[in-house]
């Protein structure tokens, strides 16, 4: 693929850390060898590494940001990648620097929490590999060959689909209750609403994952279903226990009351907490396969306050490329917005977007 001319470039300094040079409001193409990039998050010392997910293979990759190319035609970046994961349609990741030994300092190792899209396919057929919540412990300081654990050692919690369905059943009087209850099938059962899971608009489709503003829980962001045109954000309150991290035994996934957000009739494609802990970045797109416009938002985390659209030249460029992922770190004065290149294109596209003034 030949990169089309772009009016501005994303200025990523060639030094070891991004804070060696400013990020500009613009775009650049980076080759990664990950044709279906679906999620991204910073990691490592000074957030100088980028963890990315490929939703088709599926696998995780770890790239050194200091080696990003200075030109659009640079060859694909190579660092290290995980083995093939036992999931299908991996769409959401976030980094959790866990204080494992309790000394009030996050360890050098990082946990990648990842969730697979849990919707069904064709006539309500359940796809077991699409029901997955898991954590991968990475160490960016380790040699590339050992940065990721052996894929065979990863444990998966495959109760997310049933817990979401139960949450809806327990709150059938809420507008979102029957929709969540009917949006997925449990094996051997039928939904109450006819063919509720046959369309992307109705089928459960998780495409975003973020820490809450206080860092105590995970937020599952749904592309679909929509509830009266609003997007669903489902808090998962026990990520450590649900995955049996540390010395605990795995516990059932615990979900709290969903939050409904007005994304102008769109669903989540990505959500990420800003390092300031004061707001979220959101990429939104059509809940179905319709060719609807994408939009970037910021949101202060208050359910009573609607997300605010981001309006800038770079955000317009990013939304024109159907963004799938957001990555932002304390050292960066702008967020990186990524879109996949499609199954035949060996590039992901990075766009730096500065947040609007307060």
Quaternary state of this entry equals single chain
Spatial extent as radius of gyration: 19 Å
Parts with pLDDT < 50 across at least 5 consecutive residues = 1-25, 69-76, 191-200, 342-349
CATH-defined architecture: 6 Propeller
Strand content: 25-35%
Number of helical segments? 4
- What is the rounded distance between the termini? 39 Å
Q: What can be said about the biggest beta sheet?
A: 4 strands, antiparallel
Report the strand count.
Answer: 20
Tell me the name of the CATH class. Answer: Mainly Beta
Mean pLDDT: 74
Binned, the helix content reads under 10%
Account of the protein in words:
- The chain is mainly β and 358 residues long.
- The chain has a single domain (36-308), classed as Neuraminidase (6 Propeller), CATH 2.120.10.
- Helices cover 8% and strands 30% of the residues.
- It is built from four helices and 20 strands.
- It has a four-stranded antiparallel β-sheet with strand order 1-20-19-18, with helices on one face.
- Strand 3 and strand 4 (59-64) form a beta hairpin.
- The longest helix is centred in the middle third of the chain and has 11 residues, at 160-170.
- The chain is globular.
């Amino acid at each position: 693929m030949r990169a089309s001319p772009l009016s501005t470039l994303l200025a990523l300094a060639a030094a070891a850390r991004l804070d060696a040079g400013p990020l500009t409001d613009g775009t650049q193409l980076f080759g990664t060898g990950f044709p279906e990039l679906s999620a991204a998050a910073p990691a490592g010392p000074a957030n100088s590494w980028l963890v990315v997910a490929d939703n088709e293979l599926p696998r995780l990759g770890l790239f050194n940001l200091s080696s990003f190319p200075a030109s659009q035609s640079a060859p694909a970046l190579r660092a290290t990648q995980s083995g093939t994961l036992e999931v299908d349609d991996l769409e959401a990741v976030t980094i959790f620097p866990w204080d494992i030994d309790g000394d009030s300092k996050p360890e050098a190792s990082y946990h990648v929490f990842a969730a697979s899209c849990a919707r069904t396919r064709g006539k309500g057929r359940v796809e077991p590999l699409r029901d997955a919540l898991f954590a991968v412990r990475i160490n960016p300081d380790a040699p590339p060959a050992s940065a990721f654990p052996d894929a065979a050692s990863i444990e998966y919690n495959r109760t997310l689909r049933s817990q979401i369905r139960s949450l809806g059943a327990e709150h059938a009087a809420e507008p979102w209750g029957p929709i969540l209850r009917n949006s997925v099938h449990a094996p051997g059962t039928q939904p109450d609403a006819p063919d509720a899971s046959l369309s992307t608009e109705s089928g459960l489709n998780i495409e975003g994952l973020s820490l809450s503003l206080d860092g105590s829980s995970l937020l599952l962001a749904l592309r679909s279903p929509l509830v009266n045109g609003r997007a669903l954000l489902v808090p998962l309150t026990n990520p450590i226990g649900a995955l049996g991290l540390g010395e605990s035994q795995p516990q059932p996934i615990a979900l709290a009351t969903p939050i409904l957000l007005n994304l102008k009739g769109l669903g989540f494609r990505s959500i990420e907490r800003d390092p300031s802990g004061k707001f979220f970045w959101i990429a939104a797109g059509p809940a179905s396969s319709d060719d609807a416009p994408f939009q970037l938002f910021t949101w202060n985390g208050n359910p009573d306050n609607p997300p605010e659209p981001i309006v800038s030249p770079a955000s317009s460029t990013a939304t024109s490329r159907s963004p799938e992922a957001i990555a932002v770190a304390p050292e960066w004065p702008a967020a990186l917005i990524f879109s996949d290149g499609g199954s035949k294109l060996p590039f992901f596209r990075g766009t730096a977007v500065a947040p609007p003034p307060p």
